Amino acid sequence: MLTLLKLLQDGRFHSGQALGRALGVSRSAVWKQLQQLEVELGLSIYKVRGRGYRLQCPLSLLDQDVLNGTGVPWEHRIFDSLDSTNAEVMRRLSMGSAPPFAVIAERQTEGRGRRGRRWVSPYAQNLYYSLALRIDGGARQLEGLSLVVGLAVLRALRSLGLGSVGLKWPNDLLVGHRKIAGILLELLGDPADICHVVVGIGVNVNMQLPAEEIDQPWTSMQMEIGAPMDRNVLVARLSECLAEYLERHKREGFSVLREEWEASHLWQGKQVNLIAGVQTIQGRVLGIDVTGALLLSVDGEERAYSGGELSLRLSDDS
Fold first, then answer.
1. Against a cut of 0.85, is the pTM above it?
2. What's the CATH fold of domain 2-55?
3. Which of 4, 130, 132, 189 fits 85 for a cystine, CB–CB 3.0-4.6 Å?
């Protein structure tokens, strides 16, 4: 079935006879495989008498050999389908796989975002990427780590033509008010000693069709740039940027990256609501501190906030 998908990924019409010849099967067998693609992967296939079959939208399939041959700083392990890339990294770490390594899937069946939200993961349209890291030296190496990852993703997207993308504290990337990427970090082990961090990154790459499951405004690289993006190019560039920023963070700490992060924070100086459980805190964004905590002016007083269950929203009058 994957061979058939590779033949169709260009989005052009292919006759049943030509597909059957390439696969070494009958036209009826081709038809059965096409039905499987629609049912199992949720792909839409157009069928036109006299012209053949084509995908509703072209696909950019990931190529493990290409990615691991580009001189990137760690191995990329590509999967057709996973429950989630973060979960797969955790399984591999528990079995003794040595970091760093990246796990990438064409789709996720149980993709997760922050605060337990579902990350919508259509087949071969977006990027579902998780990186395994070993952290030595205790909690200092974790300070601002998610914000450093955000800077790396930002650099990668901007270098590929998405100049309008910016950061939203703590773990989102937006174009205007529309989300294009998110980050989820999960920790394994003792943060005071030696531990592993799973860096999960989701980027909307070529997704165009409405996704009713998404409960917030969103966009994609293709929608913003106006052309499909080669996801192999994106993966290679993302890994390069991650390696650069992670090495700098390890060597110098987060404080040297603080100003760079604030310069790309879309909500700098904005009036916001910070939601912490059932509590809502109103204030104006002053920036971040040297640990990556959010600094707000609340009733004329500067306060710092950090934690995994915080959510930031623009105030109605902002």
1. yes
2. Arc Repressor Mutant, subunit A (1.10.10)
3. 130
